[in-house]
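Good day; I would like, with your permission, to put a structural problem before you. The record follows directly beneath this note:
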Amino acid sequence: MAVGALALAGCAGKEERAGDRADGGTAGWVEGAGTVKIGLISPMTGPYAILGILQQNSIQVEMDRINQAGGIGGAELELVVRDSGLDPGKAVQAANELAGDSQVRMVVGPSLSAFYNAAKGVYEQNAKINCQPGVGTGDFGVLKYGFRSQDPNHIGVEKLMQYFKSKGVKSIGLVYEADDAGKANDGFIAELAPEYGIEYLGFEQTRPDDQSHRPYVDKLKDAGAIMVSSNVSGAKTMAAAGEAGYKGILAGTSGLQNVSFLDAAGDMAVGAVFSAVNVQFNIRDKASWKPGYKAHVEEIVKKYGVVEGPRSGAEMPKGTAIAADCVTAFAAAAESVRSLDPDELAPAMEKLDIPDTETPSGNRIKPADHEFFHVEDMHIYRWDKDGQGWFITDVTPGS
C-alpha cells in the first residue's frame, strides 16, 4: 500500500503551494531536505522498557515500508529516539528538545497520561505535530497539533458497558489503584453504568503494599462484573476472585491483552474479557486478519520475533501497531498536501479517512476529532485456554 494511496485528495488549499505543484508530479517536493525525522519518547530502559521497544519496532517497520515505497516527497524517514526511563523529568526534557528541533516533524510520546500532560503545552507552543499511542486519558479534541492513536479509556469502558448489558449484568464494581487511571475509570463507570441500566457498586482503591485483594473482592462479591487494573494489581484481584469463588465477569481495558498480565494472573484469566481496538494476533483464524495488520505483524515477527510469557507461554508480536498508525497517518497527510508545515499537516490529518484494510493496526483512521479510534472501532475479547495454549475469542456484541 503506497503512501499516495492512503492520502485524502483535496486537503490542500494555500496559494503558496501552487508553484510547488506546477510540475505536476509528487516526487521530490521535499528534495534537498535529506531526511524527514520523527521522534519517539518512551521508556527504553527500566521496568517498562518493553513499551518503548514495542513502539520503536512498529514505528521502524512502518518507516521502512514507506521508505521502500519512495519515502515522503522523495525524502526518507528517520527515527530519533529518546529514553524517558519512566522519569517525568526526562520525558519533559526530551519533549522540549524535540519540540524545538525544526528537523523533527512529528513526535510520538511521551507515553503515559501524566507525562504527556506535562509535555503537551510544549508541543502546542512549538506547533509540533505529535501522536500518542500510550496515553489513555485527557481530551485531544481541544489540541491543535496533538493526535491520539490509542483507544481512550472512556470508550473502552463504554464498550464494556455495552457487553455487560448484552450479558444481562445488573451491577459492577471497580478494583483499581488510586492513581489517575483508577480515578478516571471510576468517573467513567459512574457516568456510563446508569445509561446501560447497570448499578455501580463503587470503587475499591488498592494499595501497592496489599498482600491480597480478597477484602476488596469480598465487598463486591454480589457484583455481576468486576473491572480490574491492567497490571499486576489486576492479577492480584483475579487471584482473590478465585479464592472467593466469585462467579461474575472479570474485565478490564486493553492492557489485559499483554502476555505479562497473563503471566501474573495465570489460569484465573480464563474467561476474562477486555475492550481494545483490533487485536488479532492470538486469534487463531488468520483468515480474519486485516491485510494491513497481517503484513505489519508478519514483518514485526520476521525482524524482531515475539514476546513470550515465561509462565503462560502466550505470545504477542514484538511491536505495537497503533504506534505505526501514527506514521501511516503522518505520511498520508504530508503527501495529501505535499507539505511538512504543521499548520497544513494538522488539518490534513483531521481530513484523513484511511480504511481498516490499509493500516498497521487493522483499524480505520478517521481523526476528525484528533482521535484515531471511537466506540464503534472497539471490540470485546475473551481470553481462553485449551490444550494448544492461550487464545483470544472476539465476543463483541453483534459480531
Q: What stands out?
A: The longest strand covers residues 35-42. The CA atoms of residues 307 and 316 lie 5 Å apart.
